[in-house]
Design goal:
Layout lengths: L2 H9 L6 E6 L2 H17 L3 E6 L4 H11 L3 H6 L3 E5 L12 H13 L4 E6 L1 H5 L3 H11 L8 E7 L9 H9 L2 E4 L2 E4 L2
Parallel strand pairs: 1-5, 1-6, 2-3, 2-4, 4-5
Antiparallel strand pairs: 6-7
Helix pairs in contact: 1-2, 7-8
Length: about 180
């Protein structure tokens, strides 16, 4: 499958879709995720880019190079760029209440809501059970009318002898690997 087709399929995912993306490097991830977010902004919606391991200024610069008016969208709160610490407890654990309230608030703003979240660093830090549990809570079909892409470096797919990969495929309705995108039954 050509990269442009994968990008189009991801950008066109319907609300309630919960996709997982395994990427080779940050550049490859951004090539897929930024058009996904940009489409939501173009349709007067809300876009969120949450990352556990990227400097946020670099994310903003990459978005600007992509053609996203970061300053305008952040000012009107249609674009949120944040790190994982926005959704954790003081001891660094994922905070379900913060995450759930944040997502509900996004939906209440109206328009399409597109979320790209990367928790690779948390997996690498050994928080596999917590990440898997959170993905399972979201379910294959999201309860809220938003579209979410959960991105992970392909290096974490073999975590726990491949168990992490299997759990991610079970928790998502759509999967994207380098060169292939497919719905999961």
């Amino acid at each position: 499958m050509e990269r442009s087709e994968i990008i189009r399929k991801l950008a066109d995912l319907a609300p309630h879709s919960h996709a997982v993306l395994f990427y080779t490097d940050i550049r490859a991830k951004r090539e897929v995720v930024l058009p996904f977010l940009q489409k939501g902004l173009q349709n007067k919606g809300v876009a969120v880019y949450a990352s556990s391991h990227e400097p946020l200024d670099e994310v903003r610069d990459a978005m600007r190079r992509w053609g996203i008016n970061v300053d305008e969208h952040e000012a009107d709160r249609s674009l949120v760029i944040c790190d994982h610490q926005s959704f954790t407890t003081p001891d660094g654990r994922l905070n379900d209440l913060k995450i759930d309230q944040f997502l509900k608030d996004l939906v209440e703003r109206g328009g399409p809501v597109k979320v790209a979240a990367d928790l690779t660093l948390l997996v690498k830090r050994g928080m596999v059970d917590e990440v898997v549990r959170r993905e399972q809570v979201l379910k294959r079909r999201l309860e809220l009318p938003l579209t979410m892409v959960c991105a992970y470096e392909e290096t974490v797919t073999d975590t726990r002898n491949g168990e992490f990969l299997i759990e991610m495929l079970r928790a998502h309705s759509y999967a994207v690997f380098p060169g292939i995108a497919m719905p999961l039954i």
